[in-house]
User: Fold this.
Amino acid sequence: MRLKKTLTIAGSDTSGGAGIAADLKTFQEHGTYGMTALTVIVTMDPDNKWSHSVYSLPIDVLKAQIKTALSTGIDAIKTGMLSTEEVIQTAGNAIAESKLDHVVIDPVMVCKGEDEVLNPGTVDAMIEFLLPKAEIVTPNLFEAGQLAGTKTPKTVEDMKVAAEKIHALGARNVVIKGGKQLVHDKAVDLFYDGKTFTLLEAEKADTDYNHGAGCTFAAAITANLANGLDVKDAVIEAKTFVTAAISNGWKLNEFVGPVLHGAKNKYGAPEITTTEV
Assistant:
């Protein structure tokens, strides 16, 4: 038996809910063999309301990790938290050299609970070094606005405008995650393949335990692509996977609650509707 091999170039969330921890759990649930190249370590201070600190790893260490993983024959790759322009360029160059088709760019710009871009120069670097290599890019509303050079989308029409602009930057497919900030009565994501907009809708989960949802969604897409699904079907399955995970999120402590990565496989898939808009 040969498992499909999936690589995440991302940060380590010490609390275990997001970053490479979420990616590896998601890869496992999808039956792929996950590998990692660590960019940063993120810690949280329990004495200061879970405030985040980000510790970057040396660039030569990152390069050595990526070289190790790619040498095994990777089937699909995703990126997560890339903290500096140099890290982004390193990841982009490695992806180009790998000649992989299945490349998922999760353009992480902030830590959960923060509201400022980690490093403003990273947005331009993502546009230059990552988007042209992306089979699909998976921004949330804030990230979509940053990449598109628009205000943060608030409606589905705003999302469509942003998706077109991001697609024009080189990404072959775009899925914008609506999240709770979108003006809509459902939990909505918008998929765009350069020709057609598809709205993915699920019932909103009445929970604040959604830590790691974005990483989980992108990792599920990555695993699905490695397993042979086309991009749209990979996104739809990932939507069902993360919806189940959010609906069964749980309280880790007084500050955070992660999603439950095994929820879909344990409890079944929630209903997702897709509509061309």
In short: The chain has a mean pLDDT of 95. Residues 221 and 229 are 9 Å apart (CA to CA). Strands lie at 5-13, 33-45, 51-56, 76-79, 103-105, 136-137, 174-177, 187-192, 197-202, 273-276.
